[in-house]
Amino acid sequence: MVAGGSSARVRAAAPPSSHHRRRVRRAWLFLAPMLVVLSLVAGWPLARTVALSLTDATLNTLDEANFVGVANYLAYGPPLDAFDPDAGAYYLYDAEHDRHFVLDAQTGRLTDETDRDHPIVYDRVDGDYVHAETGEPAPGIADPLFQWSGVLADRLWWRAVANTLVFAIASVSLEVILGVAIALALNAGLQARGLLRAAVLIPWAIPTVVSAKMWGWMYHDSFGVMNDILLGLGVISEGLAWTADPHLAMAAVVFVDVWKTTPFLALLVLAALQMLPGECYEAARVDGVHPVTVFWRVTLPLIKPALVVAIIFRTLDALRIFDLIYVLTANTEATMTMSVYARQELIDFQNVGAGSAASTLLVFVIALVTVFYLMAGRVRLGAD
Amino acid sequence: MAGIVFDRVSKRFGTAEVIRNVDLDIAPGSFTVFVGPSGCGKSTLLRLIAGLEDITAGTLLIEGCPVNDVAPAKRGVAMVFQSYALYPHMSVYQNMAFGLSLAKTDRRETDRRVREAARILQMDHLLERKPKDLSGGQRQRVAIGRAITREPKVFLFDEPLSNLDAALRVQMRLEIAKLHRALGATMVYVTHDQVEAMTLAEQIVVLNAGAVEQVGAPLELYHRPQNRFVAGFIGSPQMNFLPGTLAAAGADGVAVALAGLASPVPAAVAPDGQAAGAAVSLGIRPEHIVVGDGVAAAGPHGRIALVERLGSDTLLHVATQAGHLVVAAGAATKARVGDTIRLGLPADACHVFAADGRALARRGATEA
Amino acid sequence: MAIPGRSRPATAAFYAAVAVIVVYTVFPFYWAVNSSLQTPQELFDVTWFPFSFSFGNYAHVFDGQPFGRNILNSVFVAVLTVGISLALSLTAAHALARVRFRGRGLLLLAILSVSMFPQVAVLGGMYELIRSLGLYNSLYGLVLSYMIFTLPFTVWVLTTFLRELPRELEDAAIMDGAGPWTTLTRVFLPLMGPALVTTGLLAFIAAWNEFLFALTFTLSDSQRTVPVAIANFSGASQFELPWGNIMAASVIVTVPLIVLVLVFQRRIVSGLTAGAVKG
């Protein structure tokens, strides 16, 4: 066999990377079952939720839903409950002027039927109403009849948004502070580490619903241990209704969440701490640097990447909080979050359209927060 | 037995070309070693033979058949890995039988081959153990045994000894050489260790930056390096290089003018088209430099800057007027740091390299 | 016991802090156990120790409601969810971890973002899907819907694990003639025991604890899982909840989890950090 030169040999005959291509094809085959299931349980329902948010679907009429545009988000017009499907018209009442109107859904023609014998007809021209006979404009005639509707016009939705943000900020910041403290204790190399780690895992292992019930009992206004202790210490003079009092309910919920999820954060921080090089600390100790300074100048910058990831995870988790609040404080306005609001619209009120709109908005808010975090992270990177 | 031919083979990872247009012949039944600095592509070249990497352009032939599109297991090759890559959950026996069971080999035949391989490698008593209960050397034996049971036409070794300690490495080296004689199969071996390459190989392939620098028998590479890279890579301690210019070029040799020397140094090489005045470098191996009183006064001289006593040998680092030279002076030398020493550069030990690194052909240098 | 380089009072303060942390984390569980062992009379008076050691609450949990059935439901749903998730993610993780292909990074990102999805975001569509498949008020409907949070997690963790297995092991298998399926099942799978246990356990806990879907997609008491059953516990009167029974039920469903978590604590910690930190 002689190398080179022979023109009989085929140069680059086979398509290159045939093994690799076969491997990639097999990889997609391996991925396929998981991708099918994941699109079925995540992609499809998400797309359907967005689609349903643009319809007037209710729980019992999912199949015969009509497209209503963005009305579930925000709309201005006659109240939906004034619609009479048989007549194809809205029956409206102007309480201010004590007048009765009929609004034809098809033509948009508004008829003042206060005096049944002499109805006054208004036509809609360029978005304003004018007398059908005289052509004289009738500005503002529909204002008392129409209203803003949709999730974005619902005061309760905005309350839920505010509650969710307050809950997320309060619980995550407390968890970070406590979590770092516990992680530092666990990392201190004391002999109680095993005990401490076990103790810290217990709240994490308890199902959220169960912990909500446990705390609900501890918070009980008459027989709860919380009031008993505080009364015994003389901090309060009479038992507090922790979960029912609108001023206390949010604090009560935050307290339980902090108790339940701080361990998760502590373990993440601990994992980061254990990867730190020991030499840094020995050098600092030799130099006689104060431990607090060491924490701020050495430890914290080193664990910051892990901490930021943990904070993002926890924040996204807190923004979708549902079960703790649903079980601990039921549907009080004081603690209602976006998830609770969306489920209430969707299931309790059977209003699939509005509920789906709220769900979609929740995804939007979470996406916004994620983008904010990513941007804040990048800004910080740039400043370094 | 099977020969391997690379016909203008290239390999790209993305935009990085790691193997450039390699033409190479590996004779059936030969022992070929790929050497080169790390990142030169020697392991990639081996993985191309194995079929673990796809060939981007060109053709690879085994036994005269193009194998670009043949699956690794169907090429009749077996591979021994640096990390042994034994299946941790299988016994030694199962490790060696795994490939055969996948090929649906008859059970009795499988058993025969595994026991035969174990006998060859003297590890019959290890068959029921798990890899974690074996020493490094034993693991390497199992890895080789796994290759033997497949009765391949070609054995591929990817730095198989680099995880072993020095003593074991020597022993395994001998065993691999013995194995080659016993089986007579084609073996391709990748290493960065020169001693392994020189002792094992019938043919050495020196690679640099994805291209073949030179192919040849070990001593041929030592005596007749085709370029400066091979000259510097083969041989330890490394060849000395001194910058100079060609003072005279004739049919019976050339002379190289070096800085600070009154007369040019003659070298027994052909001019190869280089004319007087061309910039060249003069190469000479430390073990070929002559030290002592009989040396002509015209040679380089200088102070000894450093003495390295290796026991079997002594290396002198000498700062001469022509440049820094490392000299292998023998164990008995009494030279000390600070001494001034005269050096002789024998004409038939000198190599001359043109400005582009190409070696001028040496005359009369022996093969042995 | 003293920590080198620290004074005696500092050490004492340190251990006091540890004690506070332990009490803080463990006390609610202690209180549940304490309350569950008390008689209804004792409950109405804050008692720090269950002097009567009454197991009446535990007996009551199982009559009047199908709580035994609920536990079996939860076990069934969680086990099936974990089994299917692991099976599906095993091959997927192999592809994601060991094959370089276009779009892999994007796919991993998509999977990660699904795990960050609010469950409520798919509630409407999921309700419709489950109704149209005829799985409303069925445990299989729960198993299907739980894939949305277990699957991304198991895929992610198994991918990180598989990525760390040495490349030469796979090369050796290829040289031995093993295809991807054989490599996965006969070479990698036997090495993945610890990873499968950890991942499975974490997915099990997630499925066991799930509330929103279970609350929304089941209707009858007999189809409910434990969290919904406990949330819906009601007493004789509408206004007075049977706290003793609730605490007993809570202890029943929590003790096995705590035991599991404590037994596997090292693995759980590494699994949690693998799932999270490497995101």
Note the topology.
The complex is a heterotrimer of chains A (384), B (368) and C (279).
Chain A (H helix, E strand, L loop, with lengths): L17 H35 L22 E3 L5 E2 L4 E6 L4 E6 L5 E3 L7 E6 L2 E4 L15 E3 L5 H33 L5 H13 L2 H11 L6 H9 L12 H29 L3 H9 L4 H29 L3 H7 L8 H11 L3 H32 L1
Antiparallel strand pairs in A: 1-8, 2-3, 3-4, 4-5, 5-6, 6-7
Chain B lengths: L3 E10 L2 E11 L4 E5 L6 H9 L6 E6 L2 E2 L10 E4 L11 H11 L4 H14 L15 H14 L4 E5 L7 H18 L2 E5 L3 H7 L2 E6 L2 E6 L1 H6 L4 H6 L6 E11 L2 E6 L6 E3 L11 E6 L5 E2 L9 E9 L4 E7 L2 E6 L11 E5 L6 E4 L14
Parallel strand pairs in B: 3-8, 3-9, 6-7, 7-8
Antiparallel strand pairs in B: 1-2, 1-4, 4-5, 9-10, 11-12, 11-14, 12-13, 14-20, 15-19, 16-17, 16-19, 17-18
Helix pairs in contact in B: 2-3, 2-4, 3-4
Chain C lengths: L7 H29 L3 H4 L12 H7 L4 H32 L5 H12 L7 H10 L6 H25 L3 H9 L4 H9 L4 H17 L2 H6 L8 H6 L11 H21 L1 H13 L2
Whole-number total of structural domains of chain B? 2
Oligomer: heterotrimer
CATH level-1 class of the largest domain in chain B: Alpha Beta
Q: How large is the count of helical segments of chain B?
A: 8
Q: Can you tell me the residue ranges of chain B where pLDDT is under 50 for at least 5 consecutive residues?
A: none
What average pLDDT do the residues of chain C reach? 86
CATH class (first level) name of the largest domain in chain C: Mainly Alpha
Please work out how many helical segments of chain C DSSP would assign.
14
Average predicted local confidence, pLDDT of chain B: 90
Percentage of residues in strands of chain C: under 5%
Determine the CATH topology of the largest domain in chain B.
Answer: Rossmann fold
How much of the sequence of chain B is in beta strands?
25-35%
The helix content of chain B, as a percent range, equals 10-25%
What's the CATH H-level homologous superfamily of the largest domain in chain C?
Answer: MetI-like
Structural class of chain C: mainly alpha
- Give me the side-by-side strand order of the main sheet of chain B: 6-7-8-3-9-10
- CATH fold field value of the largest domain in chain C: MetI-like fold
Major sheet description of chain C: none
- Tell me how many strands of chain B there are: 20
Residue stretches of chain C low in confidence (pLDDT < 50, at least 5 long) are none
Q: Give the tally of β-strands of chain C.
A: 0
